[in-house]
Amino acid sequence: MTNLHDTPAHNAPIVTVSLNPVFDLILEVENFQIGRHQLGQELQLLPAGKGLNVCRTLDSLGLSSIITGFVGQESMADFEQPLADTDITAQFFVLPGRTRQNVTIVDPSQLSDTHIRQRGLKVTGQDLERMGKKLGLLAEKDRVMVFAGSLPPGVSPAGLARLLRICKQDGARTVVDTSGQALAAVVKEGAWLIKPNRQEFACLTGRTDQKIEQIARSARRLTNQVHNILISLGEEGALLIARNSAIRARIEPTKPTKMLNTVGSGDALLGAFLAGIVQGRDMQTSLIRALAVSWAACQTPSPASFDARLARKVQSQVRIEQIGGL
Predict the structure, then answer these.
(1) The domain spanning residue 53 has which CATH number?
(2) In the chain, beta strands by DSSP E
(3) Does the first or last residue of the chain, that is N or C, have fewer Cβ atoms within 10 Å of its Cβ?
(4) pLDDT above 80: residue 287
(5) Domains: count for the chain
(6) Model-level pTM?
(7) Contacts with 221 (C-beta within 8 Å, 6 or more apart), sequence order
């Protein structure tokens, strides 16, 4: 058991805030090469984004959630319809136009993912004010409120920080999965947890090519502002850093396994980790299950989709390492 920043369980549904949601188009192209005419196979076209992927993970684990954000009026029906048979409650604000579409090209022969992203619909100051009022109604003590994804045009890092401040005023636990200047802004704001990947964390700290212990040391220095830092490390597992403790979780599979699709695996990690927290599990136990869920999600073509039986099986292969000397 670690003395990471554990907090009590909270029964209210987790709230995710997706300021810049997206439709994900996933294409499979063998031996993908830039500048060539090639045949591809559509694997998936579905509403997505980090916030919705977190909600899908929660739904698969039997937890209800609420998602809010901004969706284009022309896309609202297509965005909400797939959520009809889930325990995800959509409470979106409507913007003029169509929600953006991102394209992921998966090349199974080279085990590579190529991502093409659009910026998204513009959000006005009035739109952001409405969102702030909405979050003020949803925020309550110990409720987990997740801000996930990129910022749309019209929303600055300072604007994101203001939304966090609204949630924190009522004692909510603010969780952020974003990058760049937006991530730096929420660190200064004192989020309860941030979840960068290795590259995003390197950009945040300005320190690249670090070993695990060096990453943990850099994260520890940030815990005078952020309570907890969960860093996804791809095949090397994940780090969970708090003010007094640091643990690394990694999977030692019994046989080599190819990752079918890594899109949304970090979102699955975050969703499963938060599921454990709201269910009253300690952080180490939550991390073990979360890493297993994330690994299982890499075995399916759909983002943040996973086989629960496979995830349970993989849990026994998760190894925990306490990182000392920080």
Answers:
(1) 3.40.1190.20
(2) 14-18, 22-28, 41-48, 65-72, 88-90, 93-95, 101-107, 112-116, 144-148, 173-177, 193-194, 228-232, 238-241, 246-251, 318-322
(3) N
(4) yes
(5) 1
(6) 0.90
(7) none
